[in-house]
């Protein structure tokens, strides 16, 4: 390679890696701010700011969903299998909302781990399967990821 | 290998050979896209949670893959243009930018349409979606530079630098779902594990990905050939082609 091209090659590599390093450092510095949501453990440990609008993501605890008969008020519990946060929400829930489903709720924490949400988004996992397969799995007493249904130990997806 | 690389330096050689490639890529694109769409929309099974709305994956995932690989190709071509001063590489960057931007827009749009019923929102500022939006703006940047700078070699240099700088965004898009909490789910397909999807669902997706790549090849070849004709219009061989078409 002639020296002029070599020089330009070095310059290009310097540009790419130098810029990558700059962006990398920025992302490390902003790490916490880029997260879309807090986990229930972070809320319980007081890592989330109180009174500010924040998002909490976790699995809806089985059997915790209770609906008000008179209004759209729904209350349920969110867990990351370490800690649990109670959520209150008034509004229409997305199609995928169900017990055992991962969701993200946005709202304010009002002391003692109660989140008053004004927006609830369902989080879909990366697994896809035909309905017949999931029915067969349920009959066999397995969850969609192949683990047994009874102990809810599978990590959040 | 080096002989091939050196011949790429000649726009005339590339114009001749790409004319022979075109019908093959075109045929492959028609074949795979037609099979893929019919297979995906009619015969692939519905998802157990999302029902039929998951079928948008057959457009969304190939478009997103193409959007990112197109940018990587642009960056590589930009580097070749900067280091070896290869005219053809510069033409490729100019030809590819609008195509890549279209694929990025398609991925964002189909994602929003899918997100509304599945997540409950069209848009959320999570890391994956935001990084993809930045990719769209990077494409816009390259298009704008090409349009704004009259001098061809200066425009090529500026776009190549932007493509190389923007390259840092590609791993961010890819790993955003692993580095941060995002609403977007992690990748279903990984090189190291078997896909989290049964074969009757992912085989049509694979066909669609091949179809999108062939379609991309056809569009890029056509656009690059146009670019060659426009820039080499004063040369003997282009004049000969034009005259033979006129007769």
Plain-language structure description:
The complex is a heterodimer of chains A (157) and B (247). Chain A is α+β, with helices and mostly antiparallel strands and 157 residues long. Helix content of chain A is 29%, strand content 26%. Chain A has 4 helices and 6 strands; from the N terminus they run αααββββββα. In chain A, strands 1-3-4-6-5 form a 5-stranded mixed beta barrel. The model of chain A is unreliable at 149-157 (pLDDT under 50). Chain B has one domain (21-246). Chain B has helices at residues 2-7, 11-43, 57-84, 87-118, 127-148, 152-166, 169-179, 199-231, 236-246. Chain B starts with a helix and ends with a helix. Classes of the chains: A alpha+beta (157), B mainly alpha (247). The interface between A and B is large, with 45 and 42 residues.
Topology:
The complex is a heterodimer of chains A (about 160) and B (about 250).
Chain A: H1 3-29, H2 31-34, H3 40-44, E1 53-60, E2 66-67, E3 73-79, E4 84-90, E5 102-109, E6 114-122, H4 131-139
Parallel strand pairs in A: 4-6
Antiparallel strand pairs in A: 1-3, 1-5, 2-3, 3-4, 5-6
Chain B: H1 2-7, H2 11-43, H3 57-84, H4 87-118, H5 127-148, H6 152-166, H7 169-179, H8 199-231, H9 236-246
Strand share of the residues of chain A? 25-35%
- C-alpha termini separation of chain A: 49 Å
- The chain-level structural class of chain B is mainly alpha
Gross geometry of chain A: elongated
Helix and strand succession of chain A? HHHEEEEEEH
What low-confidence regions of chain B span 5 or more consecutive residues with pLDDT below 50? none
Features:
heterodimer; A: 157 residues; alpha+beta; five-stranded mixed β-barrel; 4 helices; 6 strands; B: mainly alpha; 9 helices
Structure summarized in a few sentences:
By secondary structure, chain A is of the alpha+beta class. Chain A has helices spanning 3-29, 31-34, 40-44, 131-139; strands at residues 53-60, 66-67, 73-79, 84-90, 102-109, 114-122. Chain A is built from four helices and six strands.
């Amino acid at each position: 390679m002639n020296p002029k091209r070599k020089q330009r090659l070095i310059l290009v590599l310097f540009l790419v890696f130098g810029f990558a390093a700059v962006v990398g450092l920025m992302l490390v510095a902003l790490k916490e701010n880029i997260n879309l949501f807090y986990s229930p453990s972070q809320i319980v440990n007081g890592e989330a700011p109180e009174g500010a609008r924040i998002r909490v993501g976790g699995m809806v605890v089985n059997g915790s969903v209770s609906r008000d008969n008179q209004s759209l008020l729904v209350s349920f519990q969110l867990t990351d299998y370490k800690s649990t946060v109670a959520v209150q929400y008034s509004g229409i829930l997305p199609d995928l909302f169900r017990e055992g489903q991962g969701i993200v709720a946005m709202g304010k924490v009002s002391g003692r781990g109660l989140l008053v949400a004004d927006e609830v988004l369902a989080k879909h996992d990366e697994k896809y399967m035909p309905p017949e397969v999931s029915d067969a799995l349920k009959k066999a007493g397995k969850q969609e990821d192949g683990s047994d249904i009874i102990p809810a130990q599978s990590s959040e997806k | 290998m080096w002989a091939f690389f050196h011949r790429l330096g000649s726009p005339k050689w590339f114009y001749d050979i790409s004319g022979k490639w075109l019908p093959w890529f075109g045929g492959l694109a028609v074949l795979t896209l037609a099979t893929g769409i019919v297979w995906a929309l009619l015969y692939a099974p519905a998802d157990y949670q999302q029902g039929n709305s998951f079928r948008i994956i057959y457009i969304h995932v190939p478009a997103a893959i193409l959007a990112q690989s197109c940018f990587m190709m642009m960056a590589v071509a930009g580097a070749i243009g900067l280091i070896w001063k290869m005219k053809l590489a510069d033409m490729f960057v100019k030809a590819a930018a609008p195509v890549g931007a279209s694929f990025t827009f398609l991925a964002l749009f189909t994602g929003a349409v899918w997100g509304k019923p599945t997540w409950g929102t069209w848009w959320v500022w999570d890391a994956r979606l935001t990084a993809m939006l930045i990719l769209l703006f990077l494409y816009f940047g390259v298009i704008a530079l090409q349009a704004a700078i009259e001098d061809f070699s200066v425009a090529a240099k500026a776009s190549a630098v932007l493509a190389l700088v923007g390259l840092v965004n590609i791993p961010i898009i890819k790993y955003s779902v692993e580095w941060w909490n995002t609403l977007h789910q992690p990748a279903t397909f990984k090189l190291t594990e078997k896909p989290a999807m049964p074969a009757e669902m992912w085989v049509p997706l694979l066909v669609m990905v091949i179809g999108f790549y062939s379609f991309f090849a056809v569009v890029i070849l056509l656009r690059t050939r146009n670019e060659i004709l426009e820039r080499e219009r004063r040369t003997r061989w282009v004049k000969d082609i034009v005259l033979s078409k006129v007769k």
